[in-house]
Amino acid sequence: MASPFAILGGNNDVRLNSHALCRKSMKTFIDDRELRQVEEIRPDLLKGFEVVKIWVITVMKKHRFSTLCLNELVEIFEYKRKNGQFVIPVFYHGTVYELQGQRVFFGGDAFVEHERWFKEHPEIVQKWREELTDASRLSGFRFTITSREADILLYRLDAMQRMIPGLSQFLKRKCAFGPSMASSVKKARHLVIQLNIPKPVSCPNLVHTEAASYGQEIDGLSQLEKLQVLGQGNGGTVFKVRHKQTLALYALKVMQCDRGTPPNPQELNILRQTNSPYIVKCHQIFTKPSGEVSILMEYMDAGSLEIYVKSRGRLSEDIICTISRQVLKGLFYMHSRNIVHRDIKPANLLINEKMEVKIADFGISKIIQQCLERCSTPVGTRAYMSPERLDTGKHGGYNGFAADIWSFGVTMMELYMGYYPFLEPGQEPDLPSLMLAICSREPPSLPECSSEKFRDFIRCCLQKDDPSKRWTALQLLSHPFLADA
């Protein structure tokens, strides 16, 4: 039976496959010397397209001049659309947005030549353009430095186990490792021989995240096109914007500060330097003499958990467990750097189409506070504030880290119950009602239908009388509700 795994690539065929794949006893279609010498796709390769479950395609500059490689790409995507195979692109010395526009990396020079060669069949060239664009829209990898190609392949195999749901459960045959295999090889303990993926899953569109990782520097707001308003509040207005040259999508938060109280440059530097997969990335910060501050951030295309719950209903414990783990990792990252959020709530927890959850506005709350310090409205949302923050006289001093944990606990309760837990469904969250519910009453409990581990997890977050007894983000990550999941 043919292997359901195949590598499609350029001049790395011999070294990559013989050095890595053959040592892993993995059969591929490309480690055939005769195949590399033909101009047309061989019938046995076309037949193999039907049984391959995963294609890793290597996209290199020279491929733009190879009709064979481009024809193979067309066939692969035809079968992907028909049978739902996985296609994982690897881009060498190029970026996704260059590929999408066929600029620079896949420059117009190649396709000008193709249009001249195939002037009687312009639809062929157009098809190549379309499939290259489709490849750029898939989740994949990018390499800009020279590496041993065997190590790159093994890195792909290891990463694929994380990318494809349930892949590791279908690994059937162990691999014999040679004595000289690198440590990265040892991580891939099994060889993919037969896969039985129950449901084809398309790789997600990563236009915006590619821009986040590899995009060029954006020098000014004039390079951005506003597409729509994503949200408004005391902190300003958030727009969905598009970079005019690369077409990458971002979120742009625009705030108006007092001329006399500009944001602290140190706070702005903290935002720029924050780098965590659990926190929405800040790409650039623009300031104007008028006091306007614009923060260019990663765009999360599935919106906030507030919107998600309103449209789909309350979440299960399993989903909340997954969300909690990601949010707590983000909190731990920032708390360990002495930075507090001040406004954890469902609206500030954003998700993308891969269901990754990231905290938005981390560190921005301090800047918002500077912009609004002459206003009567406090920073943060009262409904999610801790008792000691709402009533410092009665509940003691304010601890920002413990207050973030309180807000986190209230948020997780709301996601599970489907409504704000301190008030009755439909009750207006005015200040007197919130003060009474949060400061004077005991914290609410989860319904009896919830698990004891989940109820204890929430109790650890909502310790009211002594904020120092609230668990930290790191402690909560080891709580049985998360650790035993």
Write the layout of secondary structure elements.
Elements: E1 5-8, H1 13-21, H2 43-51, E2 54-59, H3 67-83, E3 86-92, H4 96-101, H5 108-117, H6 122-136, E4 141-143, H7 149-163, E5 173-174, H8 183-187, E6 190-191, H9 207-214, E7 224-233, E8 236-243, E9 249-256, H10 265-273, E10 282-287, E11 292-298, H11 305-312, H12 317-335, E12 349-351, E13 357-359, H13 364-372, H14 387-390, H15 392-395, H16 400-417, H17 431-440, H18 452-461, H19 473-477, H20 480-483
Parallel strand pairs: 1-2, 2-3, 3-4
Antiparallel strand pairs: 5-6, 7-8, 8-9, 9-11, 10-11, 12-13
Which features would summarize this protein structure in a list?
485 residues, alpha/beta, Rossmann fold, Phosphorylase Kinase, domain 1, Transferase(Phosphotransferase), domain 1, 3 domains, 5-stranded antiparallel sheet, 4-stranded parallel sheet, 20 helices, globular, disordered N terminus
